[in-house]
UniProtKB/TrEMBL annotation:
GO terms for cellular component: cytosol. Residues 41-169 form the Glutamine amidotransferase domain. Transmembrane segments: none annotated. The lineage of its organism: Bacteria, Bacillati, Bacillota, Bacilli, Lactobacillales. This is GMP synthase-Glutamine amidotransferase domain. InterPro entries: ChyE-like, Class_I_gatase-like, GATASE. CDD domains: GATase1_1. One of its GO terms (molecular function) is transferase activity. It holds the Pfam family GATase.
Length: 206
């Protein structure tokens, strides 16, 4: 399998996902549509799986490449190919299938908590000022008192509003890039989320 990756910010790369793909000898090819990579020319039939990472823009912005990325997501859905969206990437999936993405009254930034449908709590890193409406036909995976936080759609598509892929170094870099310095984060806080992420990667791309 070869995974196609859409990256939209220097500080928001694959993070610990890179460890998982290396372990499984999976090849990745990364595109930067925000920097002009011509993703509209990609053939969905040639894509085994897609990861859509985060970014500082809004999915509601009027940029041609945003629409091209959403077309790709919908095309992969028709082909039953797996897609993982992280933070802004989850919002792109939501927007691609016609549900609303809207500004929050107060952004969620820093370490916070989400819960599963059975009430299990998970510490995660939040970095978003917009939220997702529920996509009709989707299964809610995570939520908190502020917003929907994660979903599964058509079995092969998962969207996570939060960042499980981050390392302490990535969190520092993301804060610096946004002009919002973040305090030190202990790796132990992130470790359970890394384990959950590995499970999701196995389900989608394993």
């Amino acid at each position: 399998m070869k995974l196609t990756v859409m990256q939209h910010a220097d500080a928001e790369g694959l993070g610990v996902i890179q460890n998982w793909v290396d372990k499984h000898s999976i090849e990745t090819v990364t595109y930067r549509p925000d920097q002009g990579d011509p993703i509209a020319q990609l053939n969905p039939a040639d894509i085994d799986g897609l990861i859509v990472l985060g970014g500082p823009m809004s999915v509601n912005d009027d940029l041609a490449w945003l629409a091209a990325e959403r077309i790709l997501i919908r095309s992969l859905n028709k082909l039953n190919r797996p897609v993982l969206g992280i933070c802004w990437g989850a919002q792109q999936i939501t927007k691609a299938f016609g549900a609303n993405v809207y500004p929050m009254e107060k952004p969620e930034e820093g370490i916070g908590t989400v819960r599963t449908s059975d009430g299990t709590l998970l510490n995660v890193f939040h970095w978003h000022g917009e939220a997702m409406s529920r996509l009709p036909g989707s299964q809610v995976l995570y939520e908190n008192d502020q917003a929907l936080q994660g979903f599964k759609y058509h079995d092969r598509i998962v969207g996570l509003q939060f960042h499980l892929e981050v390392t302490p170094t990535m969190i520092t870099a993301m804060g610096t890039a946004a002009g919002k310095p973040q305090g030190p984060v202990n790796e132990a806080i992130l470790a359970p989320g890394h384990k959950v992420l590995n499970g999701i990667l196995e389900q989608l791309f394993g």
